[in-house]
Each structure stands twice: as C-alpha cells, then as structure tokens.
Amino acid sequence: MNKDVERILVSEEEIDGIVRRIAAEIDRDYSGEGKKLVLLCILKGSVVFMGELMKRVTVPVEIDFMKVSSYGSGTNTTGRINIILDILRGDLSTCDILIVEDIIDSGKTLSYLVDYLKLKGAKSVKTCTLLDKPSRRQVDFEADYVGRVIPDEFVVGYGLDYDEKYRALPYVGVLKPEVYSN
Ligand code: PRP
C-alpha cells in the first residue's frame, strides 16, 4: 500500500465487481435498436474508470472527452463551471450520452453538464459515477448508475488525486490527514 494512504476504502477486487455490475446494467439499458451510446469521460479523474468500464460493456460504444473546472471552493463555491475542453462532434442529436465520473461531491459538475448537453441537443443524457458522497451535496442530484456510496473522507487513487498525485493507484484509499494538512 502507498505510504501516504491510511487504509484502502475500495479494493481492486471490489472495483472490478462494481465495473462489471455497472457494465451489465448499461448493456441491459442500451441494447435497443437505434441507440448510439457515447461514453463521455470527464477528465482527468474519470480516466481509469472509463478505461475499465468501456472494456466491460458489450453493446457498441463510442467514446468522447470533456474537461471542466469549477470556480471557487468549499462552502463558498459558486457552482459555476468552466469548460476547458468541450465535446466536439456534429452528431449530438443522435447520441445517447452517458457521462462517466469518478466521484460526485457537491453534485454541481454533473448537474451542470447534464443541462449543458441537453441544451446542446443530445438525444439523451445519463450519468454514471464510481463513487458517490451524498453527504456533500449542495444541489439535488442523483446519478443513474452509482458504483458505491462512500463517507465524507479524503480519497485518492483509481483516477482520484491530491495535488495531481496518487491517480495511478489501483485502489481507492483514504489519504493520511498529515499529507494534506501540512
Ligand atoms: C472532481 C470529479 C468531478 C467533480 C465532482 O473533479 O472528477 O468532476 O470533482 O465534484 P462536484 O460534485 O462537487 O462537482 P476535479 O475538479 O477534482 O478534477 P479532476 O477530475 O481533473 O481531478
């Protein structure tokens, strides 16, 4: 285990089970005629989950990417989202978009993105997250597919970072408080 990690919260084995379960749910829901499933990875944290999920889904998928950042932080956050990389495709009106996230915290990012993609004319928009911290919500939002609900702890790994580190850990771990309080 990484020396900065206090304990493993979601193990590699558990993540594998979650990915398989969600992939099966996606297969069930997107197997109909006329579907064009586009997995939309929200950079950077979702990249590991996205890579594993797209391998497990058996219905045809296309992939795309967006990168966003939010203004402000903590309780003062305004919820305004800044699009750094937009989805660049001309066929959105025929796309069934499934946004893939690593974690939902305040809910502002996904809430904004769903509205944004619908306004842009996507045929359908759903959401998928590996981790969910409902105790941190500031807006009313629930994802369509949830891997695991977790408590309000500082988690890293499997895409999630602290100061851009720890993203490559194969598990989700709780960071030692002394690492981020220094
Ligand atoms: C994280 C995460 C979500 C967002 C969730 O991204 O990947 O996009 O925060 O928070 P919210 O529910 O409060 O909106 P982050 O800004 O850390 O960027 P990163 O994925 O590049 O690490």
First-last Cα distance:
21 Å
Please tally the helical runs, counting DSSP H or I stretches of 4 or more residues: 4
Flag low-confidence runs.
none
Order of helices and strands: EHEHEEEHEEEEH
- The proportion of residues forming helix, as a percent range, comes to 10-25%
- Tell me the strand order in the biggest sheet: 4-3-2-5-6-7
| Proportion of strand residues | 25-35%
State the gist of this model.
With 182 residues, the chain is α/β, with parallel strands linked by helices. The chain is built from 4 helices and 9 strands; from the N terminus they run E-H-E-H-E-E-E-H-E-E-E-E-H.
Walk me through what this model shows.
With 182 residues, the protein is of the alpha/beta class. Helices cover 25% and strands 31% of the residues. It contains four helices and nine strands. The chain has helices at residues 12-29, 47-56, 108-119, 177-181, and strands at residues 5-10, 37-43, 61-70, 81-85, 96-104, 124-132, 145-149, 155-156, 172-175. The strands form two sheets. Strands 4-3-2-5-6-7 form a six-stranded mixed β-sheet, with helices on both faces. The longest helix has 18 residues, at 12-29. The mean pLDDT is 94.
